[in-house]
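User: What would this chain look like folded?
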Amino acid sequence: MNSSIITRTAAAPFETVVARLPDIAKAHKFGVLGVHDLKEKMNSKGVPFDRECRVFEVCNPQQAQLILSGNITVSAALPCRISVYPDGNRTVLATIEPAALMGLFGPAPAGAEVVAAQVRQELIQIMDEVCGA
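Assistant: Here's the prediction, encoded as structure tokens.
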């Protein structure tokens, strides 16, 4: 598995996980800025795609402000995303490792490593709670 991707699995059905994620993210001070239904979007463009997959754009504005103040080019990678998709009899949640994202933008501004670690911990807690852990 790619070390730049953080995953969690849930025994709960896909639709249950999708329904739970926004409230749990909000409880961790992450707003859901948008949700992309990849199956619906691709099919609406005439591209056959049969897999369910929802991509949630989530953001903690205070954390984002700290990072963006130090390096505005990081805006190309924000907001954070959590994808949700069924895989066999389980549902998978996946997100990109925040420190890996920061590494794409050159030397990190002072304090960025701490913010990335905090965001990582919050994203993991959100995913763990959505999975019922």
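The chain has one domain: 5-130. If you want, I can go into more detail on any region.
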